[in-house]
Design a protein that fits this description.
Elements (H helix, E strand, L loop, with lengths): L4 E4 L6 E7 L4 H8 L15 E9 L5 E7 L5 E8 L10 E9 L1 H13 L17 E9 L2 E8 L5 H12 L9
Length: 177
């Protein structure tokens, strides 16, 4: 049986920390395994500007891409990949490296989020599928946290923004879905 994910929301306080799988809190395990911090719990840091794309493909390795935007406009993209299958289990961390990004590369990504109206998008659409992928993009800017989850987006500005991070990651991706 494939996992069912849900985002918990209390008004404007939707958080990936509240994602659940069946009766367990799977994301806590996932982020713990790959040593990723909670972005929603860093809201007090008004200087932090960051995005994290969690890509859970049913039959391929989970990928986590976290962009930290530096004060000078450059960025640091932290790339993590496990040997699990996104629809079945976490696996072990097999890739973990950082890509330094120019101000131009960061600006291109941020413009894509603006074109997608990312900060205004509803966190969740009730679309589920059997085979596909969860596309989850978190953002934290000036103390404002937002998370958007979509099931295998076939096109659109949200997908373009996420694909931008995938491209910047320098990962060899076997299949995008």
């Amino acid at each position: 049986m494939l996992p069912y994910f849900a985002i918990a929301s209390n008004g404007n306080n939707t958080s990936i920390d509240s994602f659940k799988i069946n009766d367990g809190n799977w994301y806590d395990d996932y982020f713990g395994e790959i040593q990723e911090p909670s972005l929603s719990q860093q809201r007090d840091n008004k200087k932090l500007h960051t995005y994290r794309f969690l890509w859970l493909r049913t039959f391929h390795s989970p990928i986590c891409l976290r962009l930290i935007v530096n004060l000078d406009g450059t960025g640091k993209l932290i790339v993590k990949k496990t040997d699990g299958k996104g629809g079945y289990g976490i696996g072990k961390l097999v890739e973990n490296y950082t890509v330094n990004l120019s101000e131009e590369q960061v600006t291109i990504f941020i413009k894509k989020t603006k074109k997608a109206w990312y900060w205004m998008m509803p966190s969740k659409k009730e679309t589920l599928g059997l085979d596909g992928a969860r596309w989850i993009l978190e953002g934290l800017k000036k103390g404002r946290y937002h998370v958007v989850e979509r099931w295998s987006p076939e096109g659109g500005k949200f997908r373009e923004a996420a694909e931008c991070l995938i491209g910047l990651s320098k990962l060899d991706i076997e299949k995008i879905y």
